[in-house]
Amino acid sequence: MDLHLTPEDRAMLDGERGLAVQMAMRILARMVPVYGADRLLDITAAHIDSALFQGDATLDYAERLAGLGAKVVVPTTLNVSGVDEHGWRAWAVPPEWAEKARRQMVAYQSMGCQPTWTCAPYQAAARPVFGQQIAWGESSAIVFANSVLGARTERYPDLLDICAAITGRAPAAGLHLEENRAGQLLFRLTGVPRALQEDDSFYPVLGHLVGKHAQDQIPVLDGLDVEPEEDQLKALGAAMASSGAVALYHLVGITPEAPTREAAFHGRAPSEIIDVTPETLRAARRELSTADGAKLDMVVLGSPHFSLAEFKKLAPLLEGRRCHPGVSFLVTSSRTVKALAAQAGYLDPLERFGGTVTVDTCIITTPMLPPEIQVIMTNSAKYAYYAPGLLGTEMVFGRLEDCIRSAISGKVERDETW
Amino acid sequence: MNPIQNPTILHGKVLVAGEAEGAALVGREPLSFWGGYDQHTGEIIDRRHPLSGAMAAGCILVVPASRGSSTTTAVLLEAICLGTAPAAILTATPDTYLTLASIVAEELYQKPLPIIALDPEDFALLETGQRLRVLADGRVEVAGALSS
Fold this sequence. Notes:
The structure holds two protein chains of two kinds. Chain A is of the alpha/beta class. Chain A folds into three domains: 173 residues, Aconitase, domain 3 (2-Layer Sandwich), CATH 3.30.499; 106 residues, Aconitase, Domain 2, CATH 3.40.1060; 112 residues, Aconitase, domain 3 (2-Layer Sandwich). In chain A, 38% of the residues lie in helices and 14% in strands. Chain A is built from 16 helices and 14 strands. In chain A, the strands form four sheets. In chain A, strands 12-11-10-13-14 form a five-stranded parallel beta sheet, sandwiched between helices. In chain A, strands 8-7-6-9 form a four-stranded parallel beta sheet. Chain A has a three-stranded parallel beta sheet with strand order 3-2-4. Chain A is globular and about 65 Å long. By secondary structure, chain B is an alpha/beta fold. Chain B has one domain: 3-Layer(bba) Sandwich (Glucose Oxidase, domain 1). In chain B, strands 1-8-7-3-4-5-6-2 form an eight-stranded mixed beta sheet. In chain B, helix 1 links the parallel strand 4 and strand 5. Chain B is globular. Chains A and B meet through helix 2, helix 3, helix 9 and helix 15 of A and helix 1 and helix 2 of B.
């Protein structure tokens, strides 16, 4: 396919809008055919995962763009960074890492990005609207924006999201286009009791199961008897985007592009129908844990970042109780939500419990955990999925209430009756 | 590069052009580099992936696609910068995440990594240990006869 550039695209590519714009457009233009597209389209917001420090190369990239004078041309939020800018000294973060990660944060802020530093920007800052064309990085945020909000973004990788923000352009491909948003696979809930559907832990487990099967296809889920809460949808999508590469899902009767099953599939037939049963859910739940003993070093909540509603729910569960001295209790969130939670009084029970909050980053994006942390319990499928590879820790997946119970007793306790 | 005698020749789609030679390392499942690839050593560290524990640095990595996190691109870029990346990557579908890492490596360091998308049928012919030679026009030479 030939590449069709507008006169303005061409001006950017030719360097008439400056060297930073030229570099961003050069990268974008090379990527257009890889996306199977022949042109670019306008985007009106961006969320940038590129600011996450991974090493000298991501820092080189940030400082190259910043040094060339790059400025974003659409409202742009920032995903997690490589360090809790003001809180890293309380943890095992090497000072050299903290300094380089901070330099990378400074570089992206110099381009005009908002210092939101969160993987859940839709709960801390900008929330795109239905049908809006956006360029978002961060897999869990992408799936939320597409599925729950009905905004339109491809699954943008690090390094490309910022090119879109600098040029205001993105490849006209994939989920930006209506015809590519139809459901492909049908997952039918079969014999899943309503009580289970109301349980928070149902959603990450279901997401893990669906993502593993769907990979990069668009799953449609039918048969839910309840209307999930926003944080349950957040957990569902984050899990699908970890075990698979799901960037859009439809929940029949719930998400905006799926008023009916027919609408979710754009009138076509599903390529495959998969029944989700309590048995397959139990198998998926088992996969989220790598440890099966009682040993416990840490409980961590908040991937994607904890919302204000989650802090509100957590606070009374911790009231009047105390974390075991052998267990660290951590919540990861954004600086915005932490400030709101503090003002609402939700952090006081957490502090009295012996827990702490880390912002800007999380346990898998900054080297904060000391080596003695070997077994971690979480209610997040994303943490459970990634930590064994990234941190070398053993993971135990469990319900929020079981995470708290275990933090108090100092050993893993799980009610797995479903 | 030394030519491979009597090779089987596969024709792939060039996503990033370049030449490379090495042993094939073949995994049939998509791989997230973030949480799946140690940029400091070149080891596959996704404990749920069939290639878990394999050293991919210098090999011709053959995986159907990347998967999961948007940070896959950054991890591959770091690995290219550190010299721990595969010598080339062959996929079964054009992969935007891996291709982008190579394009940015060319921008920053003039070190593009050859990325080739094969037809799924050709992809299925490759096995770990085969000696491969990747050419700039998208041809992939495979030593010996292939069982299919």
